[in-house]
Specification:
six-stranded mixed beta sheet; 9% strand; 249 residues; binds iron/sulfur cluster; alpha/beta; single chain; globular
């Protein structure tokens, strides 16, 4: 049985969003860290937005644990960035791995590149390599900081600054929710924040190597993720607004 980490009503959540709407990203982070000391955690995919958040968190007086998920299918550039970031900010980045037995059984049954054969198989792979390790990493925490932005995709348009995630029983906070891509880049450049070199090679959104391709000028930011699937269904289960809506309705 999943342990409930936090209790909040829809009305309380609405008021919280109104109360916090005028805060800057850094102020918002500081607010949650002060309100939920030791219960706030940040998941970094090592993407551009997450690097901004790592930089913002480094400027706060209270440290926040940072973790990332190693699916076993990442780009070499992403592994390099994990180490570069760890050294730059002198922080621990906890790396969570999928369960070896589950991966072995999945690959034995469906093949190593199962994600190309059906959406069902792709979701199975994301579930085993991402969702289950994420569930373990978030266990015991009340607040989950993410780098989601509305501009990233049509599916993320309805996101809130703060929401309750019923899948993981946790408050989800998106401090960069309303930032534009230009604002993210401006922050990165002004503050010399390390970032994945693939961003300079046409990869605005970077996930696992076999499931990410470069995008062309004018294409959607996330067009290169699971490019062979129908757009609008391309969330991996970590941040699935449709699932959250279905569960809460
Ligand atoms: S993004 Fe691709 S390789 Fe990574 S977990 Fe999902 S299906 Fe598997």
């Amino acid at each position: 049985m999943t342990k409930k980490n936090i209790n909040i009503t829809t009305e309380e959540l609405k008021k919280l969003n109104e109360q916090l709407s005028s805060l800057t990203a850094k102020e918002l982070l500081a607010w949650f860290v002060a309100r939920y000391p030791g219960k706030t955690i940040f998941s970094s995919s090592m993407g551009l937005e997450d690097q901004v958040i790592t930089d913002l968190l480094a400027s706060l007086s209270n440290p926040v644990p940072v973790f990332t998920l190693d699916t076993g299918r990442m780009f070499p550039e992403t592994y390099d960035l994990i180490d570069i970031t760890r050294q730059r900010y002198n922080i621990v980045i906890e790396v969570w791995f999928p369960d070896g037995g589950q991966v072995r059984r999945m690959v034995g049954e469906h093949g190593i590149n199962l994600f190309y054969s059906s959406q069902e198989n792709r979701k199975l792979c994301c579930h085993i390599r991402k969702t289950e390790p994420l569930r373990q990493a978030l266990s015991g925490y009340s607040v989950w900081i993410t780098g989601l932005r509305r501009e990233q995709s049509a599916a993320r348009q309805d996101l809130e600054l703060v929401s309750f995630d019923p899948e993981f029983n946790i408050l989800k906070v998106n401090p960069l929710l309303n930032w534009s891509t230009a604002e993210v880049w401006e922050y990165i450049r002004l503050n010399r924040v390390p970032y994945n070199t693939l961003h300079d090679q046409g990869y605005p959104s970077i996930g696992c190597q076999p499931c990410t391709r470069a995008v062309m000028e004018g294409e959607d930011i996330r067009a290169g993720r699971w490019w062979w699937e129908e757009s609008g269904k391309k969330e991996c289960g970590l941040h699935d607004p449709l699932k959250a809506k279905q569960k809460s309705s």
